[in-house]
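Appendix B, record 7
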Amino acid sequence: MISLADIQAAAAAIKGAVERTPCLASRTLSQLTGADVRVKFENLQFTASFKERGALNKLLNLTAEERKRGVIAMSAGNHAQGVAYHAGRLGIPATIVMPAFTPFVKVRHTRDFGANVVLQGETLAEAAAHARTLAEEKKFVFVHPYDDPFVMAGQGTVALEMLQDMPDLEMLVIPVGGGGLIAGNAVAAKAIKPTISVIGVEAAGYAALYQTLHGQPVNVGGDTIAEGIAVRDIGSGPLAVCKSLVDEVLLVEETAIERAVALFLEIEKTVAEGAGAAGLAAMLTHPEKFRGRKVGLVVCGGNIDTRLLASILMRNLVRDGRIVRLRVKIPDRPGMLAKVTNVIGAAGGNIMEVSHQRLFGHVEAKSTDLDVVMETRDRAHVDDVIAKLTAAGFKTKLLDTGLME
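Structure tokens (predicted):
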């Protein structure tokens, strides 16, 4: 097990080469969750992730002979970029094996840092197996993303900084993939402040730590927007730490993660990837565990595909009732569309799309269904628009979003 001294040594080693990111109170998130929320913005690292800390600490502890041989890593993206960036900066050749599902933005950035990128495998485990094979064949030094004492010590510098900036913190909420981040942070936090609670958060489809700690067979898989924590196995080193120092592990569904990503952008004006928003998702899902407490959230990364981010933001508007779909039944004669749009416009609705339905469904020959996608202020505004359409003689109903709430 690593010690506080190891983490302090890592902090001294990486000082100046990684950002000392801000840890700031969030008044709005505090009001929303009922807790006193402080946010550690690790998405402000140069590679937009905490992974730089552990990667650099590992690289700085290589021998001259190991540096000459070069390094190899497997990663879904953030560890890859951390290794690639700092290896390039230190003049160490780097090869990165990434699963085929890795977002394009992470692949591109890793290549831009000068690493040789190999896309292999449908899971992180398959990518890891291929990386191990290449390491043996080419004599590369394997830089594990989480099951390495130097990597864990580097990640632990996050909690070191948080408790220096906010010594009154009562809880740390840490996303969990392979366990390196929560292990390093648990060691640092518990050594500095034994009364602090360390809470892990996993995506529900990748609950490896939760299942292991509860004596359940590990069964993970499926799609998730939190690909940074979509890990099949917890490292043996991190697991040993978690068994003794982690107080609880919470699970979050995809809908909560989507909402948390959108809230970080809307409230804090910061981009969080799915994994980076997992802590906030846990607070939204389990508010009773955090209410009234001083809680430190780690936004561990901000590398998210822009198309996915756009989709998440629009879906969140739909869930909040700020974009809705109405079905308005109108007579099939000239001028009816204009009357409907006038009513909606006068009520303050902003029409985004309109489509007619004459041929399918239960529609009389002399009438038509008009589907209107509309932007509104909130759900109360939606009700007001529907009321005004009804008063104008148009039978109107709000269509189901089809999204899980």
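Remarks on this record: The first strand starts at residue 23 and ends at 25. The mean pLDDT is 93.
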